[in-house]
Amino acid sequence: MEQGCENDLVSRVIQVIAKSQHLEPGAIKPESTFVELGIDSLDGLQILFALEEEFEVNIPDDAGKEFDSIAKASEGIRQLMEAKQAAASGA
Amino acid sequence: MRQVAVTGLGVISPIGLNCSEFENSLRQGISGIAPIRSVPCDGLKFSNAGEVRGFDPLCWMDARQASQVDRSAQMAIAAAAQAVQSSGITFDPLRSAVVTGCSVGGQPTEDAVYRQLYEEKKTRFEPLTIPRIMGNAAASWISMKFGIQGPCFNVSTACASAGHAIGQAFWMIRNGVADAAVAGGTEAPITFSLLRGWEAMRVVSPDTCRPFSKDRRGMILAEGAAFLVLEEMQAARARGALIAAEVCGFGMSADATHLTLPSSTGAALAIRLALEDAGMRPEEVGYINAHGTGTAANDPAEVRAIRSVFAAPPPVSSTKSMHGHALGASPALEALATVLALRGGFLPPTANFNEPDPECDVDAVPNRARELNVRAALSNSFAFGGLNAVLAFRACS
């Protein structure tokens, strides 16, 4: 079940990045790095924006700097969503 | 070849509302970076900027004119008036020029009317909305104030705007197109919409601006205006003008690589061209006023550019650490700082400097101004869009 959610999140991240960068989703693998995908710093900003919109989270600048692969972006989003849920249930 | 003197200086900035206040701040290493007061910053990732505090447009224009002019042009009119007053020049209308650098125009007006339109659902705009917003408003107001009828235009090249503007004015005088010019820049970019735009670029520091320091976290936005009066050297000497410095070289280039990631090759090209234009050897340069934004990307690229031109670089400081980054006006604030340094025999410091960064291996004049007479200096400006402008100055004894 958890593994399924994880996969679901990764595939959503891939969809968002594919749309933002005009890439075929099939060309992006869960293990792809941004460098391999030809994503530069300015593309990276657009991806952060697209991920924030899709997942309704705010990615802090320092955290955003770590987003340099599908794996790291997915893990970063997972942590931010968990923190958001924890804050919501705490409130 | 005709030479070009700087005979007038004026400034409205976060670190001074005239040249003596501005110079004093540079000498004392006083920063004008502080919590933003003019617009609410709720929810923004940063809350500091270099705002101009205590500026009263009515010291420089009547209430009727002030109501017709956006803040960006108000500051420009004030700084230009100071420059003309200090120069003591009487312009020959057809032989004089005005060149301004302003990147974003009348943003405070634009922001206010969009709020009226979309939020308050107003259906009628104040009639002078368009001429308040236009990027050439300052150039036009300055030409009217001083009756200057020669070349008059605005340059918009993002954060290099005023560098290109002063360079064009310098070339026009040197080439005989004009004999005198009011040249500089202005910017009033502290509006909520632009702050949101800069936030999305993820280059604004959450605390302050620390150029070349290892713990730098980005740039700090600012507003302000600075203007110089430039004159053909012999004419300036003949009328007994006080000459603050000589503008002697200008170089410009385009990176032609990336919209926002600076290229040290493009920057180095502009530096080399400025030296060549000035007939200046690298070892003559005693000080460089850096573009020095304090972002992760700019500062190492700029140091690589400087090191590719200078075998032993002179001291390099960034006065943006004090006045912040006033976009298109920054090169004018920094040209002024460079002229004051040459005239006053001191090097302005890089304020807020904590820790050397091996990637930014230069003498950044950390935190304390240095008493030093140098004969020549450069002022670097490298804009988003990869557009570079470098000015060269010589001291006048």
Helix/strand layout:
The complex is a heterodimer of chains A (91) and B (397).
Chain A: H1 2-21, H2 41-55, H3 61-64, H4 70-90
Helix pairs in contact in A: 1-2, 1-4
Chain B: E1 4-12, H1 19-28, E2 34-35, E3 48-49, H2 63-68, H3 71-87, E4 96-101, H4 107-119, H5 129-133, H6 137-146, E5 152-155, H7 161-174, E6 180-187, H8 192-201, E7 224-232, H9 233-238, E8 245-254, H10 264-278, E9 287-289, H11 298-309, E10 316-317, H12 320-323, H13 330-344, E11 346-347, E12 370-371, E13 376-383, E14 387-394
Parallel strand pairs in B: 4-5, 4-6, 9-10, 9-13
Antiparallel strand pairs in B: 1-7, 1-8, 2-3, 6-7, 8-14, 11-12, 13-14
Helix pairs in contact in B: 3-6, 7-13, 10-11
In short:
The complex is a heterodimer of chains A (91) and B (397). Chain A is built from four helices and no strands. By secondary structure, chain A is mainly α.
Characterize the structure shown:
The complex is a heterodimer of chains A (91) and B (397). Chain A is mainly alpha-helical and 91 residues long. Helices cover 66% and strands 0% of the residues of chain A. Chain A contains four helices and no strands. Chain A has helices spanning 2-21, 41-55, 61-64, 70-90. Chain A is globular and about 40 Å long. The relative contact order of chain A is 0.16. The model of chain A has no long low-confidence stretch (mean pLDDT 91). Chain B has 397 residues and is an alpha/beta fold. Helix content of chain B is 35%, strand content 19%. Chain B is built from 13 helices and 14 strands. A ten-stranded mixed sheet of chain B has the order 5-4-6-7-1-8-14-13-9-10, sandwiched between helices. Chain B has a two-stranded antiparallel sheet with strand order 2-3. In chain B, a hairpin with a 3-residue loop joins strand 13 (376-383) and strand 14 (387-394). In chain B, helix 3 (71-87) packs parallel to helix 6 (137-146) and helix 7 (161-174) crosses helix 13 (330-344). The longest helix of chain B has 17 residues, at 71-87. The two termini of chain B are 20 Å apart. In chain B, 60% of the residues are buried. The model of chain B has no long low-confidence stretch (mean pLDDT 97). The A-B interface holds A 40-42, 45, 48-49, 60-61, 64 and B 45, 200-202, 206, 218, 258-261, 297.
